[in-house]
Design brief:
alpha+beta, Nitrilase/N-carbamoyl-D-aminoacid amidohydrolase, six-stranded mixed beta sheet, 6 helices
Length: about 300
């Protein structure tokens, strides 16, 4: 089997404004800057077209959604074609009347859509009321073929689930990309902030190690006030790329806009997997029950 080529990955850690048009313009400038620095795959943060509206429940915010294809994919498709790059474009997708998704579009170097992922795990926590807005994804966990090779994209809350990372890795992705919008509640930061950020980094590094793949997370940065007068969220940045052994290759700050440019070497995956053969040694015959919510005595007996 031919090993896919090496390529540079660009991660756009950015803040957002209340102006969706301005956010798109700023994103395009940063994508073009990443391409000028050699990036062949560029990923933007989750829901980058707007500030994080899920801090409250308000039907007016459904007006922010757009179709696929639509304005964002068309604009970024032109950039992808002109710069000959692959772009991961997170979008608030208006699928049809009353059905909306938190999605990520893979745009290939020809400007065409190579894949669509709809966020599967939808949180419902204080100031992260995503279940009000987003229908859970129905396309499953996928890896998409691009001119750079096979890549996988998941979204934010998916970061915490090893099953999602495993399934995308088993489908041949060389890198898992997580467009993200995560941060601190200001009143919790002093007591819990360090542990929260460390857990977020640790679980994703674990996905890289367990699956022998590159993992990248792309977060927004800056404080965003709550639309309904709540305490707001301080997004913690910290976008990063780690290698198949979980080694941190590049990591951004917690408080500044940055563009990270780092290399992904698919040959490194083969080397790591030959020495740490976790996929080889999986007991696929013994995992009955992994598809259950919880294995209490009754449900376990049904599986036997």
């Amino acid at each position: 089997m031919k090993t896919p080529q090496r390529f540079k990955l660009g991660l756009i850690q950015m803040s957002t404004t209340p102006d969706t048009e301005e956010n798109l313009k700023r994103a395009i400038i940063r994508v073009e800057e990443a391409a000028s620095s050699g990036a062949k795959l560029v990923c933007l943060p989750e829901l980058f077209r707007s500030q994080y509206f899920c801090q409250c429940e308000d039907t007016a915010f459904f007006d922010l959604a757009e179709t696929i294809p639509g304005q964002t994919t068309n604009a970024l498709g032109r950039v992808a074609q002109r710069k000959k790059i692959v772009i991961i474009a997170p979008i608030f997708e208006r699928r049809t009347l009353g059905i909306y998704h938190n999605s990520a579009v893979v745009i290939d170097t020809n400007g065409e859509i190579a894949g669509l992922y709809r966020k599967m795990h939808i949180p419902d926590d204080p100031a992260f009321y995503e279940k009000f807005y987003f229908t859970p994804g129905d396309l499953g966990f996928q890896a998409f073929d691009t001119s750079l090779g096979r890549i996988g994209t998941l979204i934010c809350w998916d970061q915490w689930y090893p099953e999602a990372a495993r399934l995308v890795s088993l489908k041949g992705a060389v890198v898992l990309l997580y467009p993200t919008a995560i941060g601190w509640h200001p009143h919790e930061k002093e007591a819990l902030g360090k542990a929260q950020l460390d857990a977020w980094l640790t679980v994703q590094r674990g996905h890289a190690i367990a699956n022998g793949v590159y993992v990248a997370a792309v977060n927004r940065v800056g404080y965003e006030a709550s639309p309904n007068g709540g305490s707001g969220i301080e997004f913690w940045g910290s976008s990063f790329l780690c290698d198949p052994q979980g080694v941190m290759i590049e990591k951004a700050s917690v408080d500044r806009e940055e563009i990270l440019i780092s290399e992904v070497d698919p040959g490194r995956i083969e080397d790591v997997r030959c020495n740490w053969p976790f996929l080889r040694d999986r007991r696929v015959d013994a995992y009955a029950g992994i598809d259950r919510r919880f294995l209490d005595k009754e449900s376990w007996n049904k599986k036997r």
